[in-house]
Amino acid sequence: MTLLFFTASWKENKHLLRWPNFSIKKLLLVVVLTPIASLIVQILVILLNEYILEAHYSYESLYSAHPYGNYIMVVSIAVFPAIFEELGFRGYLMQKLLGILDQKEAIYITSFLFFLMHLSLLSFFWMLPLALVLAKMRLKENTLWYGIVMHFLFNFTSCLFTIYFVS
C-alpha cells in the first residue's frame, strides 16, 4: 500500500529519493549515534517492562522456531519498516500535509500517527521523540535516506540485542 500511495504521487515525491546534500559526516553521525540510542532504549524498555508490568516481552519467540528466524526477524523488523514506514510517513503523508499545513504541524501530525501505529503506550517515551527526529531530519535534509538509514539501524540494533542478549 505504501508503494502504491508513494508512486501514485510520484511527481511530488520523487525528489525525496534523491540525496542532494549527502554528507559522509552526517551519515557517520547517524551510524554511530543511532545504535547507541537504540541500545539505551532496549535496556530501558526491559527495565520498564520488568518493574512496571512485571513481565518480560520479546518478539524473538515469534522467529526462534524457524531455521532462518533471525534473518526473517531482521527483514521484517529492520529492513521493511525502515523503507516502508519512511516512504509512508515521512514521504507520502508528510508531503501531502505540507501542501495544507505548515512544517511544524506536519512534523507533529506524522510523528504522532507514527507513534499511534505502533500501538504501544510504553513506547511513548522513545517512539515519539524518534519520530520527531526523523521528521525534522527529512525536512532539513530534503531526503528520506538519512531517515531510512537511521530507522534501519535503530531497529537492526534492537534485533541484534534480542538475538544476542535476550534469547
Largest sheet: none
Q: Order of helices and strands, N to C?
A: HHHHHHHH
Q: Rg to the nearest angstrom? A: 17 Å
Strand-pairing-aware structural class:
mainly alpha
- The overall average pLDDT, rounded, is 92
The tally of beta strands, per DSSP, is 0
Name the helicity range.
over 70%
**Strand percentage:** under 5%
What is the count of helical runs?
8
* Overall 3D form: globular
Distance between the termini: 33 Å
Low-pLDDT residue intervals, each spanning 5 or more residues: none
Topology (elements, then pairings):
Layout: H1 2-8, H2 10-13, H3 24-51, H4 60-63, H5 69-98, H6 103-117, H7 124-141, H8 145-166
Helix pairs in contact: 1-5, 3-8, 5-6, 5-8, 6-7, 7-8
Q: Which tags fit this structure?
A:
167 residues, mainly alpha, 8 helices, 0% strand
Give a structural overview.
The chain is mainly α and 167 residues long. It contains 8 helices and no strands. It has helices at residues 2-8, 10-13, 24-51, 60-63, 69-98, 103-117, 124-141, 145-166. α1 (2-8) packs parallel to α5 and α3 (24-51) crosses α8. It is globular, with a radius of gyration of 17 Å. 26% of the residues are buried.
Short description:
This protein is mainly α. The chain is built from 8 helices and no strands.
